Amino acid sequence: QVQLAESGGGLVQAGGSLRLSCAASGRTFSAYRMGWFRQAPGKEREWVSAINSGGGSTYYADFVKGRFTISRDNAKNTVYLQMNSLKPEDTAVYYCAASLISGLYDYWGQGTQVTVSS
């Protein structure tokens, strides 16, 4: 059982950067694979990135490769998404999620808004 809370969203110009944080409650954070998802108005939720429980393996959707970096600090119960070279099409609500089974996310945060202006 884990509770998640995202922060770090905001309004930036195209080409700018943001770092999103997801703070987890409880003492079982290190057992979870963590993922980031996003959803724009009128669009389906899409997967953005994932990181394994130990932090040694990372995965990215094609549309963010080379621009976004996922990381985690298990001592702080926090996962991050560093977003560089932001584009207007990155505008969405970003959610973090926790998974005990790969591909199946059990817990979700409330989301944080990212808006990129052109």
Please work out how many helical segments DSSP would assign.
0
User: What fraction, in percent, of the residue positions are helical?
Assistant: under 10%
| C-alpha end-to-end distance | 40 Å
Largest sheet: 7 strands, mixed
Tell me the Rg in angstroms.
13 Å
Rounded average pLDDT: 95
Percent in strands: over 45%
- Show unreliable segments: none
Assign an overall shape. Answer: globular
Would you report the number of β strands?
Answer: 11
- Derived structural class: mainly beta
Order of helices and strands: EEEEEEEEEEE
Brief summary:
This protein has strands at 4-7, 10-13, 18-24, 33-39, 46-51, 58-60, 68-73, 78-83, 92-99, 107-108, 112-117.
Describe this structure in words.
It is globular, with a radius of gyration of 13 Å. Strands 2, 4, 5, 6, 9, 10 and 11 form a seven-stranded mixed sheet that branches. It has a four-stranded antiparallel sheet with strand order 1-3-8-7, with no helix packed on it. The model has no long low-confidence stretch (mean pLDDT 95). It has strands at residues 4-7, 10-13, 18-24, 33-39, 46-51, 58-60, 68-73, 78-83, 92-99, 107-108, 112-117. The chain is mainly β. It is 0% helix and 50% strand. The chain is built from no helices and eleven strands.
